[in-house]
Design brief:
The chain contains three helices and seven strands. The chain has 147 residues and is α/β, with parallel strands linked by helices. The strands form two sheets. Strands 4, 5, 6 and 7 form a four-stranded mixed beta sheet that branches. Helix 1 packs across helix 2.
């Protein structure tokens, strides 16, 4: 069994509405509480970081599945949305909505369209971040396949 380790450092020099630092091998940014939650909105925040982890894992998984299936594409891009609810002062990450757009080659068949949609759905359940948050955060998929 292969085991991979990832490391990240954070520094928080102040109180709730101050600004901290986050640094990983390929990521360095300021961190703070978002404006929607009465924070200073400097750099990124945990809500964006979770959304980013889910979105990047999903789109990379989808691209890998398309490659293994020899499904050619012209473009693959996505918009994702994270929804956080506040109930009695408790913040809960409720839902992530992925809206991938797969633009297939001009000569794509109906079977290619069906395969693209099948892979779009399968990538969500195959992505390790989706599996990690399953049961805690709902993930909704709204795929757009263009041929």
């Amino acid at each position: 069994m292969a085991e991979h380790h990832f490391h990240l450092k954070t520094n928080w020099p102040g109180l709730r509405n101050d600004v901290g630092d986050l640094e990983a091998k390929n990521l360095k940014t300021k961190i703070s509480i978002p404006q929607e939650m009465d924070g200073p909105e400097v750099g990124t925040n945990p809500d964006e970081m979770l959304l980013g982890a889910a979105a990047t894992c999903y789109i990379i998984t989808l691209a890998a599945m398309m490659e293994r299936s020899s499904l050619e594409k012209k473009e693959l891009y996505m918009e994702s949305e994270g929804i956080v609810v506040v109930t009695n002062g408790v913040f809960t990450y409720k839902k992530i909505i992925h809206r991938p757009t797969i633009i297939l080659k001009e000569n794509a068949s109906e079977n290619d369209r069906k395969l693209a949609l099948k892979l779009a759905k399968k990538a969500e359940s195959s992505c390790m971040i989706s599996r990690a948050i399953k049961g805690n955060v709902e993930i909704e998929l709204k795929a757009n396949i263009i041929a």
